[in-house]
Amino acid sequence: MPSSVREKKTKLILEVAIKLFTEKGYAATTMDEVAKTAGISKGLSYFYFKNKEDLYMAVTKKAFDELKGVFRDIFKQKGRTGLQMLTDLASDYIKFAQANRMYNDAILNFMGIMQLYTQESGRQQIHPLILESEHFQKLLDIHHDCGKLGIQMVSQGIKDGSIRPELQLEVTFYTIWSMIIGYERLTGPVAFEEKEVKIHLDNWKPGFLKLMQDMLKGTIQAQKPQAVQASLF
Questions:
Q1: Per the domain annotation, does 97 fall within a domain?
Q2: DSSP per residue, 93-114
């Protein structure tokens, strides 16, 4: 089969799978339905992807590629300090996650798989068809690509003076990324009105960004309580 035809069919199946996974969820989507919606035979769909697990790993790789594009677009902007890049990254990641919910869920699901994969006993809990997927193997090679760009942003910030120099590059970036992921995950609970919790999305985001910036700049300092002089008379 000519490579151009194969590429078109692969792209079509991926697009259909992404649409169905988004609308129905991974568990409720079948390979039969993907093939039917794509207008191809079930047998042909298995020529491109061995099973649904393999297809989902291919979708996950595409999700990482799209997220890498977000990182890359920020990093290649001229005249931005490292601190400004990381601030932009926080906002753009949140936009990406909210606009591409299925992609973001696939990325977080892969991170969960990696928690198991890095432990010998944990690998037994991963579906064997995932481990056999060629796309899973590709993900093992590229899933740190976003992190590498983020680390360069921290490095740039230290060089241009916008980020304090004593910070360790890798630890700093992955800590910031974990904060951004956590923020995005908690937007739902925060948005749900709770009378006893005085926090709202409209004031949390600027507060979150400012706190992140203060941490990176080193402007957060512990304040010693001032002694209060009192008189009995």
A1: yes
A2: HHHHHHH-HHHHHHHHHHHHHH
